[in-house]
Amino acid sequence: MRIAVNTRFLQKNKLEGYGYYIHELMQRITINHPEHQFLFLFDREFDDSFIYNTNITAKVIGPKARHPLSFRYWYDIQFTRAAKKFKADVIISLDGFCSLTSKIPQILAVHDLAYLHYPDFIPWYHLWFYRLHQKKFLLKAKHIVTVSEFSKQDIISNFKIPINTISVIANGVRNNFKPLSYEQKDNIKNEYTLGNEYFLAVGGIHPRKNIMQLLKSFSQFKKWQQSNMKLVIAGRLAWQYETFIEKLKSFKYRNDVVLTGYINDSTLADLMGSAYALVYPSLFEGFGVPIIEAMQSGTPVITSNTSSMPEVGCDAVLYANPNDVDDLAKQMMLIYKDEKLRTALIEKGLVRAKEFSWDVSAVKLWELIEIIAKK
User: Fold this and answer.
1) Mean pLDDT of 343-355
2) % residues pLDDT > 90 (the chain)
3) CATH topology of domain 2-172+357-374
4) In CATH, what is the architecture of 182-353?
5) Tell me: the pLDDT tens digits for 62-106?
6) What share of the chain is helix, strand, coil (3-state, %, to 5)?
7) Distance of alpha carbon 362 from alpha carbon 368, whole angstroms
């Protein structure tokens, strides 16, 4: 079998949601199935670490797909041409977009429909592109993959997609997220928070991640509980971050807030495993990977009671209304004051995290590839 794969999100030191999903699944599939040939198609120079096996041919096709016009040219002309020349039996596109011109059967992953629920949180030209093309992508794909039952039902209800054409293949947890020793935790706390305990927030500084609301809730927590607790925010400066940076300058507890910027996997795992709790008040997620990363690290979680997050966390985490400053602050206070509850959440989280496996997800995707390629 010959399989063409859209790998434009595989960028060294810049892996995030789509990139990790593609990396973890395709690494396993290409290694586990050396008898098949894969064509990895990039839109810019790539790092050799993404060429996981000798059965992979890698090719850069321009232009760099960063804006709507270049998206369509890259997918409909360049990608389509390369896949056809390769004589691909199936195309895999796991970043939400696919070719509208190729006759080769395609498997498309759509992680969420955030643009429908929070249209103000993306640039207007991306919003325009989604509104114009999202339904076309879904109808064009031979089969659709998404990451949660919530997202599956969201796609079905908004676009009337037949239930038998969409499957859930969830995210997994990378092995480097694991409980740390007391000594390791102390070293991390000494490096980032002068030895103090800290709440951890993970994700780009972006309106959808609700970091402004988290600041207000952290402020309320500090008023209620006079402590040395810090707030560490680990993530890159994303869209509309300027407002957050300006607000932080006048924030009463700004000296208790640590911004790490973009960090690598190893550092993120260390910060996650050393945190007093992960606070993840996102307004909307198709999955919410940091929730399972924290659980596998032995770190309790406070997250939003919206979208997919209750599905992912189940009964192993605390939930709050992400639009209610006091509710979120109360959960932070609760986990700070009730050590028995915190211990129980850690134990439940370690069990719940075992339900998510990249190995299992890779097997599910491969089974789907085999089915679609034979149709």
Assistant:
1) 98
2) 83
3) Rossmann fold (3.40.50)
4) 3-Layer(aba) Sandwich (3.40)
5) 899 888 889 999 999 999 999 999 999 999 999 999 999 999 999
6) 50, 15, 35
7) 10
Angle at the Cα of 55 from the Cα atoms of 289 and 357, rounded to 5 degrees? 25
Using CA atoms, how far apart are residues 158 and 163, in angstroms rounded to an integer? 12
Domains 2-172+357-374 and 182-353 share a fold: yes
Name the amino acid, one letter, at 202. V
pLDDT digits (tens, 9 = 90+) for 251-292: 888 889 998 988 888 999 999 999 999 999 999 999 999 999
- Closest listed residue to residue 317, CA positions, set 275, 349, 287, 274: 349
| Long-range pairs, 317-321, Cβ under 8 A, ≥24 | 317/291, 317/345, 317/349, 318/345, 320/281
Q: What contacts 167, CB < 8 A, 6 or more positions away?
A: 143, 144, 145, 146, 152, 364, 368
pLDDT of residue 17: 85
Collapsed DSSP state (helix, strand, coil) of residue 278? strand
